[in-house]
Amino acid sequence: QAGRRLPPFEQRLCELTITAYEKGGAPPLPRVLGEVKELRKECIECGKRWAAECKSAPSARAADEAQKLGFEDMALLADEGRDAVGHLVELVKNLRQVPVVQLLVPSVVLVGAPNVGKSSIVKRISSGEPEVNNYPFTTRGVTVGHVHNPDVFAVFGKDCQVMDTPGMLERADDERNEMEELTVASMLYLPTAVIFVMDPTGMSGTPFPAQRRIRDALRERFPRRPWVDVVSKADAERGADYDAELEPAGALHVSAEDSTNMDTLTGRVHEMLGEVATVLQQRVAKVQEEGAAGGEA
Ligand SMILES: Nc1nc2c(ncn2[C@@H]2O[C@H](COP(=O)(O)OP(=O)(O)OP(=O)(O)O)[C@@H](O)[C@H]2O)c(=O)[nH]1
Ligand SMILES: [Mg+2]
């Protein structure tokens, strides 16, 4: 319920956390909430009943006795509801672990199959030491760093975010697991540019042609996003399934290991952040205008 008042990205994170909690064997949230609501009602009724009993007791001693029985009754009720309340408490713990990302600063996300070198690139292009965010619904940490862009800073008063995503696998959208849902949600709801990373070495475990198909499917879904294609691990040998023909046009060959083309990539990142900032500024202005118009009406 409350989730519906959150910004869409955070709403999605809540949903994914709840889904993962239910998948872990907990009963469905609506049932838990129903049980807790019922328990609350019963507790209030029980309390009122015994309070009335105390009030109309013929003697102080009888009132004491009624109070004692009332407490026992309440304790029984609380015991009956222990499981439901326990589930709710556990879920709240999980929700509190969801990391907070800035929703209104220009960001760059690195997307690609698992193990292609995304986090290594985040580390190379971030200023300072990136943090690792852990989401309750995926076992993969998400590396979050920052890039200082003076123009963006002048407008937003904040550094831009650079983060990797938990990775994409090749399969249909309706089969995506939570780690992929998080990747898609980041792109859908955050003001992002994209660095798509493909690993040509065969070390990542996803064949090069499959990586290209993942890339094309995503590009088709987000055709206007500021985007740069990157082929990683330029310092290493190409794998058997690598085919130069399968590289997206204009792909940048980089290495986090020996810094090949890291400066060029950083330059591209700043350009893209500028583009994202422009779009974001327009969006913020529009929301403010609508807010002002709403206020006058
Ligand atoms: N030779 C070489 N190896 C690299 C390079 N970048 C990353 N690696 C290696 O590739 C592996 C995966 O790198 P990560 O940066 O963790 O990849 P990732 O895409 O973030 O992986 P996940 O978060 O697990 O999906 C690690 O063993 C790295 O050491 C590179 O430029 N050259
Ligand atoms: Mg990573």
Automatic annotation (TrEMBL):
UniProt-recorded Gene Ontology molecular function terms: GTP binding
Stretches assigned to the G domain: 108-220
Entries under SUPFAM superfamilies matching the protein: P-loop containing nucleoside triphosphate hydrolases (SSF52540)
Pfam family of the protein (one): MMR_HSR1
Domain NOG1 N-terminal helical span(s) in chain numbering: 5-101
The protein's name: G domain-containing protein
